[in-house]
Design brief:
17 helices; Jelly Rolls; 5-stranded parallel beta sheet; Rossmann fold; 7-stranded parallel beta sheet; 3 domains; single chain; alpha/beta; 22 strands; 485 residues
Length: 485
């Protein structure tokens, strides 16, 4: 018993007499496999010391099934905040195997401190460094994964990506995958990791970043190009290294934009449903030739260029609007760079490929829609915030907007990448969009090709590798620079 206590950081400063007194103050309790030591949400005033066996730490996120944060083994402790009085348990402890524990309650601990001053003196230094009263017990758990490399926590993880990252894990990182998106509530899942990997729908505001900093996270690896969901000023203040994936397969997103165009034009989604019901009627399925139509592309970066190439192959007349005009595109495709108002007024099809910035937020609003042709087709595979969705709904109802293909949605973070087939969509705007026959909404799958996902994973892993080898902040190849003042 004394050897076990001495191996625990919390008690390592105690002398033999103090350890013996501590041992006498604990109670020996055994648990069978599957039995709960304590439950999340209940009130507790005791600490558990794992003497033998394995104990899972489980946390409930977004009202889903509990997620295993880590597994405790011999010498690990949990619930140490209970030594300061009654505390609400922030995680469930469940025995994975038959296990033995030593339990130290608040009353016994208080009596021990009064009777054995050497215990109080020995614990004071450790507690001042490691125990913060209002910090979640889960956040202070020191998760272990022996024999592995740098620990990396993935938020908003999904099976197809998890498999790919596992295959490409050439540096033997200790990867942990969690399906919930990053929020203040789920931030403790990053406990023990110096690096987190996040998506465009994860929340990285100042409050979340403060929590991650307190857990010891040092690097944020974005598996996307955009960073509008990241408080970069807070990252700079807290010293986070932030890297992104500036380019992956631009063909994937451009081709998905065209897929939306063609499905809406030829009503293939409606035709497919009809035929499955034995209805081969062609009523309401009349489309139009893409050849000769005017297509306006807003944003001529890599994805926009790929889209222009495809539309040029269709024989479309091409208009473009972008912060930077590229003469080589004019020469290659015969396109015309025009002001935004002219593009809106002359285009039969408008496709958005701009970054989301304060300047581009809601660039498609009531005024912009009013300038468009009647029956225009609007495609957005970039960022949901480019469109004022209530304005789009009014345009759809009036017939001003004849078709809308959306792979992104401004409030998508609450819904995309999750299954709501057995529940309700509480967002009335999103729910209304899905009821229109001339609207197609896909769940942000534009980059969902093997090629694009492999590119993203490769770049993300190399970004982490640079951090592991000592590069920080602006030294990273794909760094995201803090905002200039």
């Amino acid at each position: 018993m004394l050897e076990l206590l001495n191996d625990i950081d919390l008690f390592s400063g105690l002398d033999a007499a103090a350890l013996a007194a501590l041992g006498r103050a604990t109670t020996h309790v055994t648990f069978e496999a599957g039995e709960e030591l304590c439950a999340e949400g209940e009130t507790g005033d005791r600490m558990f010391i794992i003497e033998s066996g394995d104990v899972a730490v489980l946390k409930t996120v977004d009202d889903g099934d509990p997620i295993e944060v880590t597994v405790l083994h011999r010498g690990d402790i949990a619930g140490e905040m209970g030594l300061f009085g009654e505390r609400t348990r922030t995680a469930t402890l469940r025995a994975c195997t038959p296990c033995e524990t030593r339990v130290l309650g608040y009353d016994a601990f208080e009596t021990l401190l009064t009777a054995e001053r050497s215990v109080a003196k020995g614990l004071l230094s450790y507690m001042s460094r490691n125990l913060v009263r209002e910090t979640s017990a889960v956040a202070t758990l020191r998760a272990k994964e022996e024999g592995r490399g740098l620990r990396v926590t993935f938020f908003h993880a999904s099976p197809y990506r998890n498999r790919l990252y596992g295959e490409l894990n050439r540096y033997d990182y200790a990867m942990r995958f969690f399906s919930p998106r990053l929020t203040l509530d789920t931030a403790p899942l990053a406990t023990g990791s110096r690096v987190i990997v996040v998506s465009a729908n994860d929340c990285l505001d100042e409050e979340v970043l403060e929590a991650l900093h307190g857990l010891g996270v040092e690097m944020i690896a974005l598996r996307c190009a955009g960073c509008n969901n990241v408080d970069l000023a807070a990252c700079a203040r807290l010293g986070f290294s932030v890297a992104r994936v500036p380019a992956y397969s631009p063909y994937a997103v451009a081709e998905h934009a065209v897929a939306l165009m063609m499905a809406l034009n030829r009503r293939t989604h409606r035709a497919h449903t009809r035929v499955r019901d034995g209805n081969f009627s062609l009523n309401g399925l009349v489309g139009f030739d893409m050849h000769g139509k005017t297509a306006g592309v807003i944003g001529t970066g890599k994805i926009g260029i790929c889209l222009l190439s495809i539309l040029n192959g269709f024989g479309c007349n091409l208009l473009a609007h972008s912060r930077t005009q590229k003469q080589e595109l004019v020469d290659r495709f015969g396109l015309r760079y025009v002001e935004l108002d002219q593009l809106l007024a002359e285009s039969d099809i408008i496709s958005l490929h701009s970054a989301l910035t304060p300047e581009t937020h809601h660039m498609i609003d009531v005024n912009a829609i009013a300038k468009m042709k009647d029956g225009v087709m609007l495609i957005n595979t970039a960022r949901g915030g480019l469109i004022d969705t209530p304005a789009l709904l009014e345009g759809l109802k009036s017939g001003k907007v004849g078709y809308a293909g959306l792979d992104v949605y401004e409030e998508e973070a609450e819904y995309f990448y999750r299954d709501f087939s057995d529940s309700m969509i509480g967002d009335d705007t999103l729910a209304r969009l899905t009821t229109f026959g001339h609207v197609m909404v896909t769940g942000h799958q534009g980059s969902l090709t093997e090629d694009a996902q492999r590119n993203i994973a490769e770049t993300t892993i190399e970004n982490i590798r640079e951090f592991e080898l000592g590069k920080r902040l602006t030294e990273l190849t794909n760094t995201v620079a803090p905002p200039t003042t």
